[in-house]
Write a structure and sequence with these properties.
Strand content: 15-25%
CATH superfamily of the largest domain: Glycogen Phosphorylase B
Distance between the termini: 16 Å
Helix content: 25-40%
CATH topology of the largest domain: Rossmann fold
CATH class of the largest domain: Alpha Beta
Order of helices and strands: EHEEEHEHEHEEEEHEHEHEEHEEEHHH
Largest sheet: 9 strands, mixed
Shape: globular
Number of strands: 17
Structural class: alpha/beta
Number of domains: 2
Strand order of the largest sheet: 4-3-2-1-5-6-7-9-8
Length: 375
Amino acid sequence: MKNIFFYANVCTFDYTLGITRKVFSQINAFSELGYNVTYSGYKKNGVAIFKTNGEVLCEKHYPTSNEKICHVIRRNMLMNLCLEYLKGSKERIDIFYARYHFFDRHYIKLLKSAKEKNAKVIVEAHSSPKFEKSLSIMTPVYINDSIWNRYGKRYIDVVAAMCNDEYLWGIKTIQFANAIDINTVKLHQPNIIRHHQKEIHLIAVAFEGRVHGFDRLINGLYQYKKNDGEWDFIINLVGTQLNSTVKLIHQLKLEDSCLCHAPMMGEELDTMFDGSEIGIGCLANHRIGSYFGSAIKTKEYLAKGIPFIYGWREEILDDGYPYAKRVELNEEPINMQVIIDLYESTRNIPDLQNQIRKRLRPEDSWVGQMKKVIN
């Protein structure tokens, strides 16, 4: 059996995080393809390297319980642990699969160490490496990345890219996409509690960043109400919300329409979905200069079987797809009529949930995508 070392920088203990679920889905896919997987990640009290079954091979504990300090030091701690493991392990590594974690001296050193083990090195650019234009020149991360990414081609064999660029950092790319384990997703079973007939319930699940663009949706709702729109909207924001988003909701006095919920998972999240009828994807990817990609959320909505709006241009969807609507990527408030039109065009379709789920293809599974990269 061939071996893969997966450099993953995720909180292995928190399944409310989409990225954690994604990485474990990729690990399962590699296993199904016949690979023995060793992977890295964060624990609550430190960093560790794990076997496929979750057994800890080695770990280091944080030197403090201060969460802010731990958040700052954990990246270098994780890389140092991986370096020690690679240098000390006698196990053959056929493929070193690393999530893009910004280039700096430590990251290059990690890639070099993997190459010295005679491994094929694949770096996953899970989104095209972009920085917010207003911040990029000023941040140490951007400066370090721009200095050190030129050395990547010495040690990287191929970049697994979720964009349509033929080359990244001067390295040949393989295009692949975010995927879904459809069997793990409970089909949407609408159970809407309305105050009156002209009411639409929306759901957005995210650990919110500026690319989510929920401010555009909130401002759009405010404009719609200001113009005496006849529909009411209930927007369920599930996860963590930016302080600026919470402040905007209060400033516009939309607390009755925009409901902020803590992170959810499992049955609790399924119930929240069943109480909603339109999903909200990312609405502001342009803020990091990104206009094309593959969002996990898109695949999750398709697997759920719920109509949704989104901003990125996605390979799996086109403008003629009737159960999802793409909005322009700009700073304008969302036109709520787009959501009304989507709701009215889909609410009476028989077996809507399975009709939407059918959009997913065999290659939209993680096994299909990881097989493409490995081949």
